């Protein structure tokens, strides 16, 4: 009984966060006239494929299926690149002694405080020089320079007990073997966390892709949504259908990997 | 020899990326800011500190727009940061007990954060539409959420709080769980009230987490872009166009990379100062 006020507060908050998302889904299933009604009606009556149908119709100026595939590809490759480069670097910083280690670490931590938005203009020029403008490569690669992955994995590697690595070294294993056969298998949760967070960051990135991608069939999902808003304006079933398509993979990944996402976010705060 | 090279080989792939897309743009940004740099013109003359000087010269080309965007960013940051520091703490305190469904509620509150600003922007532009929007309908009002001030500010701040407060709440929650239970028990034995326990046990225990939350929230708010780009589209006039928005528009859509780079450097330096000040304040208190 004494928990009733607690649950009332929890449920009120739940409504605040969930109702807008429900409204997005409901609207995506409405016909144009139903969505235009004022005052608005809750339920899509009739349930219609109008919004999704217009998005996917052949010859559309807003090829949403291409955006979806582009985003999937970019986010997957980006997450792979982040883990493949950050993990060995973080291991070297956590466990190896070498000249310049302190300097590298200071640079990496310092970079965490440089807002990515302030590097957009020069990065645009770099990507242009590399001939990457309007390509998926430019969506995948530059963001992987983020220092977060290295910082995050270094903290995790430092928390591992040294004994297993020392035992492997006594057995004659070299540094690459220790890293690949002992450290990486022990680090699966941290690696999974970094994969999921990197995927989501790239999947959702908006500021960078809208300026470096130009061709309609090369856009990512978020950049495409910007175009969609301009093209359909108040044709809300279409716009919301696009928003739903961009949301589903992110929400699905969150539900499936919730533990990793929450863990990763929690730990970044405590160690930060 | 091989053994000595090993650490550098481990670092090499990342440092390559970091060098080209992390360090080089910092140097290049500084370089660009000293030039009149139009992507489309062959001549990119050196102009010294002119681009910086213009930001502070009232009759220059960019002065008016620049300061209007600084004002927009400042208004947004000052309005959103206190809410994003305080409200998530309340949510975390609510969630920091054991009751059935705790993990579920935590996940629900966090959920909006996993959606990108593009989704959030489109969704809230619709929800806040003066005629067709759900918000005015639910409250039976006709507020111009997107086209008039101060309503546009209320919208931008409100949407941002809705979108990201779950993120800060999760960070607080982890911090709360690190505070030893014994401290609360001892305080209770000493006759401390709930408020005194919060003031003398919870807040000091959260100090490092508070530093992190305040610093990252200021950085995020001061770099706001997508919300105003998609929801208010800078309106009314350019009143809600932020520094980042103006900077990228000038540099990339209007090809004036030199002036835009000077703005980027100014913003980055200002925020570095703010972060440093945060660290100092918190460290000073710790002593």
Q: Can you offer a commentary on this structure?
A:
Chain A: Belongs to the binding-protein-dependent transport system permease family. Chain A: The chain crosses the membrane at residues 7-26, 67-91, 103-126, 132-153, 191-216, 236-257. Chain A: It is found in: Cell membrane. The complex is a heterodimer of chains A (272) and B (287). Chain A is an all-alpha fold and 272 residues long. Chain A has helices spanning 4-28, 32-35, 50-56, 64-95, 101-111, 120-129, 137-140, 148-159, 163-170, 175-186, 188-204, 207-212, 221-232, 236-256, 258-271. In chain A, 72% of the residues lie in helices and 0% in strands. In chain A, helix 4 (64-95) crosses helix 8 and helix 13 packs antiparallel against helix 14. Chain A starts with a helix and ends with a helix. The model of chain A has no long low-confidence stretch (mean pLDDT 93). Chain B contains 13 helices and no strands. In chain B, helix 3 packs across helix 7 (151-177), helix 3 (63-95) packs antiparallel against helix 10 (207-222) and helix 7 runs antiparallel to helix 11 (226-232). The mean pLDDT of chain B is 93. The chains are: A mainly alpha (272), B mainly alpha (287). The interface between A and B is large, with 100 and 93 residues.
Give a quick rundown of the structure:
The complex is a heterodimer of chains A (272) and B (287). Chain A has 272 residues and is mostly helical.
């Amino acid at each position: 009984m004494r928990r009733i006020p607690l649950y009332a507060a929890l449920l009120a908050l739940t409504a605040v966060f969930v109702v807008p998302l429900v409204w997005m889904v409901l609207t995506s299933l409405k016909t144009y006239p139903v969505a235009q009604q004022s005052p608005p009606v809750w339920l899509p009556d009739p349930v219609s494929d109008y919004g999704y149908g217009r998005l996917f119709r052949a010859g559309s100026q807003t090829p949403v299926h291409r955006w979806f595939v582009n985003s999937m590809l970019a986010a997957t490759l980006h997450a792979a690149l982040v883990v493949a480069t950050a993990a060995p670097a973080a291991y070297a910083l956590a466990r190896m002694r070498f000249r310049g280690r302190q300097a590298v670490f200071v640079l990496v931590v310092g970079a965490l405080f440089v807002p990515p938005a302030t590097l957009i203009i020069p990065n645009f020029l770099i990507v242009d020089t590399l001939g990457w403008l309007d390509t998926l490569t430019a969506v995948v690669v530059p963001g992987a320079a983020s220092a977060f992955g290295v910082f995050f994995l270094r903290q995790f590697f430092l928390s591992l007990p040294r004994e297993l690595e020392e035992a492997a070294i006594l057995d004659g294993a070299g540094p690459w073997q220790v890293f690949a056969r002992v450290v990486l298998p022990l680090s699966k949760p941290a690696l999974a966390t970094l994969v999921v967070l990197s995927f989501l960051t790239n999947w959702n990135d908006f500021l960078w892709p809208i300026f470096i991608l130009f061709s309609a069939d090369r856009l990512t999902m978020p950049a495409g949504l910007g175009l969609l808003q301009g093209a359909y304006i108040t044709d809300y079933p279409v716009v919301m259908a696009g928003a739903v398509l961009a949301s589903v993979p992110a929400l699905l990944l969150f539900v499936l990997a919730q533990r990793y996402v929450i863990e990763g976010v929690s730990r970044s705060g405590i160690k930060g | 020899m091989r053994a000595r090279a090993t650490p550098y080989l481990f670092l090499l792939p990342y440092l390559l990326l970091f060098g080209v897309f992390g360090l080089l743009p910092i140097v290049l940004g500084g370089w660009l800011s000293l030039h009149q740099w139009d992507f489309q013109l062959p001549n990119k003359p050196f102009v010294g500190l002119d681009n910086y000087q213009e930001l502070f010269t009232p009759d220059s080309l960019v002065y008016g727009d620049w300061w209007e965007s600084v004002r927009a960013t400042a208004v947004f940051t000052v309005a959103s940061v206190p809410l994003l520091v305080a409200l998530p703490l309340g949510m975390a305190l609510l969630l920091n007990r054991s009751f059935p469904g705790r993990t579920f509620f935590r996940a629900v509150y966090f959920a909006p954060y996993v959606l990108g600003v593009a989704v959030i922007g489109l969704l809230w532009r619709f929800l806040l539409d003066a005629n067709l929007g759900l918000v005015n309908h639910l409250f039976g009002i006709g507020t111009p959420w997107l086209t008039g001030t101060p309503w546009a500010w209320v919208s931008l701040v409100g949407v941002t709080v809705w979108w990201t407060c779950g993120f800060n709440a999760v960070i607080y929650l982890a911090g709360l769980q690190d505070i030893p239970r014994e401290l609360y028990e001892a305080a209770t034995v000493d006759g401390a009230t709930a408020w005194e326990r919060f003031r003398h046990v919870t807040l000091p225990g959260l100090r490092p987490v508070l530093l992190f939350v305040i610093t990252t929230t200021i950085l995020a708010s001061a770099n706001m872009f997508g919300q105003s780009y998609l929801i208010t589209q800078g309106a009314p006039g350019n009143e809600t166009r932020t520094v980042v928005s103006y900077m990228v528009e000038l540099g990339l859509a209007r090809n004036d990379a030199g002036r835009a780079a000077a703005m980027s450097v100014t913003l980055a330096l200002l925020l570095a100062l703010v972060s440093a000040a945060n660290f100092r304040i918190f460290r000073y208190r710790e002593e």
